[in-house]
Specification:
Layout lengths: L22 H22 L14 E2 L6 E2 L7 E5 H6 L15 E6 L2 E6 L15 E5 L2 E2 L13 E8 L13 E7 L7 E9 L3 E13 L2 E12 L4 E3 L7 E4 L3 E15 L2 E13 L28 E2 L8 E14 L3 E19 L8 E20 L5 E16 L3 E5 L2 E26 L2 E22 L4 E25 L2 E12 L20 E14 L2 E22 L18 E22 L5 E16 L3 E7 L4 E8 L12 E13 L2 E12 L2 E2 L21 E2 L2 E11 L5 E8 L7 E7 L2 E6 L4 E9 L1
Parallel strand pairs: 6-9, 13-17
Antiparallel strand pairs: 1-2, 3-8, 4-5, 6-7, 8-9, 10-11, 10-41, 11-12, 12-15, 13-14, 15-16, 16-18, 18-19, 19-20, 20-21, 20-22, 21-23, 22-23, 23-24, 24-25, 25-26, 26-27, 27-28, 28-29, 29-30, 30-33, 31-32, 33-34, 34-37, 35-36, 37-38, 38-41, 39-40
């Protein structure tokens, strides 16, 4: 989708073709219908005369080379920083409000993006998502770091479908590329101050310009501190509220230094510091099916947007990253090198019983060090052929720092030391050959090799070693792709593609009670078939795609009782049965198919419209040995570790319908004016993060129904911005979730009861900005 306020956006992605089997009828029907829809859209759009985003080119590097967005045989959503701001999207979790078919949810503190129903159901400090996230071309492995606001943005690209060839590391579902502003040739800058409901204070600044004829700098800073919209319940008067439960704190510094070292060599040196502390999704206060082992109110919160816990609930992570990008122009193409090193410290602390009784507190500390190196050679000197060859190396070392602790009744019950070392390398090649005028064929492939070494030790309260375990494994995979594109009219293309995606195998961080059974889950794979249509004309853009995925060995997680659990529940203050282990397994098969698309237009001067839509059918086709949290109708309590058959059930975070619509309209006044903007997004019912069923003990009427579903809802954001005539000073009043809809960002259960975190209610505020 085109984005307001940016005439050229650089993107990266790949996508692919060939249809077969049950997908063929759906994909062919889609391909036939799309050109007709485009003609109808064009007939309704007024001619476009001014130089806006709709009439200009969006240049992307979808196949790691510069191409127009409409010429890339892949489904991509491109959103500029201005469009995100106009839509009221301020953080990564809200990306789905402007990118149909995408969602961002949580499992505990860990951020888990979803594209077209492909997401991860495993979580932990050592777990990489299966939707890859890149920041300025560098892979971001941490699911904690990406839980951040979005200042200093040039734009975001959502690459839909497996990126097995060019962005192949753990990109089963796709990739999300976050691009920050590059240093500019002239001095420019901006600053903003924001104040909103819940004492939400934000400040950001950016300055960029030349230090010398061949050296440019860009420096950005961001700070946020907000009281939580979730309040601690008063244990004396349960209806009263004491204060913020989980304040959100963020800070970031991004520095880029760009230099022309020679006429054909450019270097970009970067330093990034990101700090995020957002403990909202580690609140375990049960709201239903509460175990009688837990205390009654007032020792437990009962109202919406309230919580109860001892100590603190927090998840601070601090990332320091250094990067170096080198681009060397040769006689036949460009060699680009990406070198990055990240040092990250992560801390999680939460009260697992979610009450004011001092029962179970988990304290987790990790230190992660990541090195990555990639090199691409983009050869474009051969007539009718574009070729890219490249390779990457990745090393990740994550270990407890210094130890992890489990406290029972305020006393340390055990300490753990563990770590995971990952080494990976890959080699890839991709070529696009012009077969005839307007007809091109893309073929590519990637060979990946991954290795993981794990160690884990448990110490008793007295310091004795209880468990001493180690395990390692390795995996290799070849992931090809093919895409055929035909230009049926200027800037109007149809395409078909086939590709494979791969997510490396992995281990539970915690071994099972029988340590000899500590084995990895095998890699998950996906075969994807897609057909699509794209056009970009004067005044509007439109694209649409139909797709089918054959998904194998999905990696999922279940909660099992800890071996430390007493056979008979102890008094609440000493209830070790509140401890659970996160255990991974593979779901054999699933399939996904659907249609999605986007439309943007400028029907009259200064009015920009955008629309996105997605229809999705995503189900487990073979998952007969799933482990879920069932319900015992006789007791009204949860049943942990119940073997269930999830075959035929909807996959998590895969709503059948989703979409978004927005506009912005400017009443000009000199270089400024008054801009009105609004965005509405909708999603139908879906499983938030736990696909468990009510199960056989709940009764035949509900036994096969999924428990932890979120009903369908719509979100409305709006803003009004006045910019004074010189174009420098602007004031914005805004509102988000204006209908004050109540919905969950996490929702699951354990033997303690059902628990989850509600999203932020209606918020409103004012922003003051200055640009130069």
């Amino acid at each position: 989708m085109g984005s307001v306020g940016a005439t050229r956006i650089r993107v990266s992605n790949e996508a692919v073709l060939i249809a077969r089997g049950r997908a063929a009828k759906l994909l062919v029907a889609t391909a036939l219908a799309i050109p007709l829809l485009s003609v109808q859209a064009h007939a309704q759009a007024a001619p476009h005369t001014d130089d806006t985003d709709m009439g200009s080119e969006i240049i992307v590097t979808a196949q790691r080379r510069a191409e127009r967005l409409e010429d890339v045989p892949a489904a991509i959503t491109v959103v500029s920083g201005n469009t995100l701001e106009n839509a009221g999207v301020t953080n990564f979790q809200e990306l789905g409000q402007v990118a149909a078919g995408a969602q961002v949810n949580f499992a505990g503190a860990f951020t888990q993006p979803t594209i077209r129903g492909i997401t991860t159901l495993t979580n932990g400090n050592n777990v990489e998502n299966n939707v890859a996230v890149y920041v300025d071309g560098f892979y971001e492995p941490s699911a904690l770091v990406i839980n951040a606001d979005l200042p200093n943005l040039a734009g975001i690209e959502v690459l839909k479908g497996p990126q097995g060839t060019l962005y192949g590391r753990n990109a089963t579902g796709g990739a999300i590329l976050i691009n920050t502003l590059a240093p500019s040739a002239e001095w420019t800058g901006k600053a903003q101050l924001t104040y909103a409901r819940f004492n939400d204070k934000r400040a950001s600044a950016y300055v960029s310009g030349p230090l010398a004829d061949s050296v440019r700098i860009g420096l950005a800073g961001y700070y946020r501190h907000t009281d939580s919209y979730i309040r601690l319940a008063n244990p004396a008067v349960i209806g009263g509220k004491l204060g913020p439960a989980t304040p959100i704190r963020q800070a970031a510094v991004r520095l880029k230094l760009e230099a022309d070292l020679a006429s054909n060599l450019k270097a970009t040196l970067g330093y990034n510091m990101v700090h995020v502390d957002d403990g909202r999704t580690d609140i375990f206060t049960p709201y239903a099916r509460v175990s009688p082992a837990l205390p009654a109110p007032p020792l437990r919160a009962t109202e919406p947007y309230t919580a109860s816990f001892n100590g603190v609930t927090e998840s601070p992570v601090t990332n320091h990253q250094g990067t170096l990008k080198l681009a060397l122009a040769t006689g036949i193409g460009t060699i680009t090198s990406y070198t990055g090193y990240t040092d990250s410290k992560q801390h999680l602390e939460f009260d697992f019983d979610g009450t004011y009784v001092n029962s179970t507190i988990i304290d987790i500390n990790f230190h992660q060090k990541t090195f990555q190196q990639a090199v691409d050679y983009n050869i474009d000197a051969i007539d009718g052929l574009n070729l890219i060859v490249g390779g990457m190396y990745y090393h990740d070392d994550i270990a407890t720092d210094p130890v992890n602790r489990t406290l029972i009744g305020g006393v340390v019950a055990q300490r753990t030391i563990g770590g995971v070392k990952s080494d990976a390398w890959a080699a890839y090649a991709d070529a696009t050959l012009e077969l005839a005028q307007g007809l091109s064929l893309s073929l590519g492939g990637r060979y990946s090799h991954d290795k993981k070494d794990n160690d884990y030790r448990v110490f008793s309260a007295a310091g004795a070693i209880v468990t001493d375990a180690a395990a390692k494994d390795s995996w290799s995979k070849f992931t090809p792709r093919a895409a055929l594109r035909y230009e049926i009219a200027p800037r109007t293309n149809v395409y078909a593609s086939w590709s494979r995606g791969y997510r490396t195998g992995t281990f539970n961080f915690t071994p099972p009670a029988i340590v000899s059974e500590w084995r990895a889950v095998v890699p998950e794979t996906i075969s994807a078939y897609e057909v699509g249509f794209k056009t970009a004309q004067d005044g509007y853009r439109f694209d649409m795609a139909g797709f089918y995925y054959d998904y194998r060995n999905l990696q999922v997680a279940t909660l099992l009782r800890s071996p430390l659990c007493a056979p008979v529940p102890a008094p609440p203050a000493l209830d070790t049965c509140n401890q659970f282990l996160n255990v991974y397994q593979n779901a054999p098969k699933a399939r996904v198919y659907g249609i999605d698309g986007q439309f943007s237009a400028t029907p009259v001067e200064n009015l920009n419209l955008r629309l996105g839509f997605a229809w999705l059918n995503a189900k487990y086709t073979d998952f007969r040995d799933a482990v879920g949290t069932g319900l015992n109708a006789a007791t009204g309590l949860n049943v942990n570790n119940q073997v269930q058959d999830w075959s035929g059930q909807q996959m998590a975070r895969a709503p059948e319908l989703s979409g978004n619509a927005g506009f912005d309209y400017l009443v000009p006044q000199g270089e400024g004016g008054l801009r009105l903007a609004a965005n509405v997004s909708y999603t139908s019912s879906f499983v938030v993060n736990n696909p468990a069923l009510f199960g056989p003990l709940a009764g035949a009427a509900v036994a096969s129904q999924q428990r932890y579903r979120q009903g369908g809802y719509a979100l409305v954001n709006a803003s009004l911005t006045w910019t004074e005539p010189s174009g420098h000073l602007h004031v914005t009043v805004f509102g988000r979730n204006l209908t004050n809809h109540r919905y969950f960002i996490t929702k699951t259960g354990s033997s303690n009861g059902d628990y989850g975190t509600l999203a932020e209610p209606v918020t409103y505020g004012v922003k003051l900005g200055f640009d130069f």
